[in-house]
Specification:
This protein is an alpha+beta fold. About 30% of the residues lie in helices and about 40% in strands. It has one domain: Trna Endonuclease, Chain: A, domain 1 (3-Layer(aba) Sandwich), CATH 3.40.1350.10. The longest helix has 19 residues.
Length: about 110
């Protein structure tokens, strides 16, 4: 049986996937804590997305994000939930550039 933390993360991954699908993006979710969690594509755009309930990426995960960008030329985004009173009100997308996270709009 999956643990509570995994369940929360998976639920958020589905929320991000559904967010993109509603906007007309093609989405693939990788199961079992694979990296990255999602690939999304629309027309000629392709993004890799790592979903984080708590916004935190380890140094290793950040290194993998940079590798996706530099080696494979796939823009990599971190998605996290902006919450008010415990409720998700927005999905924040950020890209690691110049050694810091910057909000992006798609």
């Amino acid at each position: 049986m999956a643990n509570r933390s995994y369940d929360k993360g998976r639920k958020f991954e589905y929320k991000v996937r559904d967010f993109f699908r509603e906007k007309g993006w093609f989405c693939i979710r990788q199961a079992k804590s694979s990296f990255p969690d999602l690939f999304v594509s629309k027309e000629s755009d392709l993004f890799a997305i790592e979903c984080k309930v708590n916004k935190y990426l380890s140094k290793e995960e950040t290194r993998k994000m940079v590798e996706l960008e530099e080696v494979y030329k796939i823009p990599a985004l971190r998605a996290w939930p902006k919450k008010i009173k415990g409720r998700t009100v927005e999905i924040v997308l950020e890209r690691y550039q110049e050694n810091k996270w910057k909000v992006v709009k798609l």
